[in-house]
Amino acid sequence: MLLGARKFTQSWFAKGLLGLIILAMAGFGVSRYGFQAIRPDAVIHVGSRTTTSYDFKREYDNYKKRLEQQSGQTITPELADQNHLDAAVLNGLATRESFAELLSKIGIKPSDKLILAQIEKIPGFFDPVSGRFDKKIFLQRLAENGFTAAQLDAQIRDDMAAQHWAVAVQNGLGVPRAYGALASVFALETRDLAFMTLTPQSVPAPADPTDAQLATFVSENKSALTLPETRQLTVVAFTPNSVAANLGPIDPAELKKRYDFRKDTLSKPETRTLTTIPVKDQAAAQAVAARLGKGELPDAVAKSIGVSAVDYADKPLSAIPDHKVAQAAFKMAAGQVAVVPGDLGLFVVKVAAVTPGHEVSLEEARPMLEAEIKKDMVAKKVYDQTQAFDDAHSGGASIADAAQKVGATAQAVGPISRDGRGPQGQPSQQLPPKVLETAFSLPAGGESEVTELGDGSGSYFLVKVDKVIAPHIPPMEEIKPVITQVWKQRQVVKALEAKAQALTARIQKGETLDAVAASEHLQVTKVAGLSRQTAQSHTDVPQPVLGRAFGSKPGEVWTARAQTGLVIGRVDNVQMDSGPAAARLAENNRGELTATVFREMAESAETYARAKLKAKVDPDRARSAVGFEPLKGKDAKGKPEKKG
After folding, report:
1. Could you tell me if 403 and 306 lie in one domain?
2. Do 142 and 17 lie in a common domain?
3. Which residues of the chain are modeled with pLDDT < 50?
4. Of 445, 469, 493, which residue is a domain's last?
5. What letter does residue 418 receive in the DSSP assignment?
6. Phi-psi bin for 278: left (phi > 0), alpha (psi -120 to 50), beta?
7. Residue 44 domain flag
8. How many other CB atoms sit within 10 Å of the CB of residue 22?
């Protein structure tokens, strides 16, 4: 169906519609903005828009964070550089900015009123007490995320312009019914499938290879057989677990000191449920207080005098913004009403309920505080252990002797590869990535400083490279059993391919598939009325066979690889369904085809915008913004640039 949609986008209808859109854009004078001088700190410059290094870094970080959340894995700078993450962000951002600039040039501009209304709907900008938009919170949230009000305004303006453009185009777009009909006929087409399978048992078992054949095999497959560089290491780990058993008792004075310091934050403060009503003067205040005292609802009283009551449900003193009102309210009893001159004006306050606070005792806080103190003691002991080791090793002791002196262990590791595997590719001793990264940055015989592991555990390590084993092909006596097995498997595959070719030739010369299968004592599998809609229900038919079945012509004999061997098959009796089911599916397909066409037209419009406005990008400045080295004569994918 997607293929059909793509074919449609090449039709006169799609080209004509896209041409009308482009012509309309050109009519608004876009060509006047074809060339602009790039600004000094511009990573991207298109028309009136400039993306600075700071802006690009923010976009890059956000994109990388989304990828990490989707994959559940951390993307290291090395991995990001290898996969050209900076180029992906640069190209995507340049296209987005070009399209936004083009929409602005042709007059698709949301009004200030729409932008303001959109910003005031964002929940993160609401005051949690009043439930209303708060400008201070708005500016604070922007600052926390590295945005300014102008940048947020521009981003929302671009998003809304793109949405309005998309809605306008989609509302007027619909593919012809004929395309839906073609897609339905394609989906409901049926064909009869017959196939037989050649397994390894269908050919004679190959003899063992000679030494010369194995030598040739090794020579032809050097890259696959070459083992990566490995290293033999000495690693000293300083971990909390290694010192936790010898901590000693907790100092009661330290426990009391920490309790006194944390008591206020651990205790539960007194809270109150109350309502405040702003009033103009004492006369109005007395009238409101009297009505509240008689039991009228605060909201009704406030509404009758043209103001809004503010409710505080189970809030501590610090949650009430007016300091004088807060102090007065927390001296009142439940049910009491009072007139309070506040910092922000005159208020009538009614306290509905009082929830006493609770001051946590030392005994209640003891388990948590002792755990914190022990953690700090362990961290200090690990650090002291690293310093003692460093002193001993600097004083002339070997790594092993210095480690033994401070109660640590010098462990021999390896041979191990950069990705933590043994010499035969098997998972080796689990070393943290930072230890491996450090080890492979050192020369043979080199050793690192005592370094913090940096994973939040409070651990440290030292690593020394005892030996570097260069990439190499293992001796023949080590790999002979494995490569012998692989060589024999390849001979079986070659024999199967030759036999399949011979059997296919017999069928092509006029023998039936059933007759050829019977001559080889093979079973024929037949599936009648196979369609694309029912294909997945035939679990007995391998996926490669289904692919060839729908990709071949009637009567064509073909081969396909399956897990069990080589398949020889053909399809016959191809029929089209032009009945009611096809008609229903044709109408259902139109919506999906229209959406597909719109997506491809939108991509074409974005590409047009970038080319028409001649967007300028600076890959080296982009790489520098995210901490990568310049390309130095390479293109955005790291390949040498072509001259001329």
Report:
1. no
2. yes
3. 1-39, 634-644
4. 469
5. T
6. beta
7. yes
8. 16
What does the alpha-carbon distance between residue 525 and residue 513 come to, in Å, rounded to a whole number? 11
SS (H, E, C) 47-95: CCEEEEHHHHHHHHHHHHHHHHHHHCCCCCHHHHHHCCHHHHHHHHHHH
- Report d(CA 312, CA 275) in Å as an integer: 6
Q: Going by DSSP bridges, is the β-strand pair 524-531/616-617 parallel, antiparallel, or unpaired?
A: unpaired
Say if residue 567 is in the same domain as residue 610: no
Q: Does 257 fall in a domain?
A: no
Tokens of 326: 């807060």
* Gap between the Cα atoms of 535 and 537, Å rounded: 5
The answer to whether residue 263 sits within a structural domain is: no
Q: List 367's β-bridge partners, or say none.
A: none
3-state DSSP helix/strand/coil % of the chain, to nearest 5: 50, 20, 30
Instruction: Write the pLDDT tens digit of every residue in 32-73.
Output: 333 333 445 788 998 888 888 888 888 898 898 888 888 888
For the chain, give the number of residues. 644
Distance CA 293, CA 275 (A): 13
Name the residue range of residue 216's domain: 192-224+478-575
User: Order of strands across the sheet with 524-531?
Assistant: 524-531, 190-198, 565-575, 557-562
- Count of domains in the chain? 4
Sequence-ordered alpha helix ranges (H) in 532-614:
543-551, 580-612
Gap between the terminal Cα atoms of the chain: 42
Separation of alpha carbons 245 and 374, rounded Å? 11
pLDDT digits (tens, 9 = 90+) for 550-607: 888 888 898 998 888 898 999 888 776 655 555 555 556 666 666 777 777 778 888 8
Q: Could you tell me the sign of the dihedral formed by the alpha carbons of 184, 188, 191, 550, in that order?
A: positive
d(CA 612, CA 547): 41
Specify the CATH number for the domain of residue 497.
Answer: 3.10.50
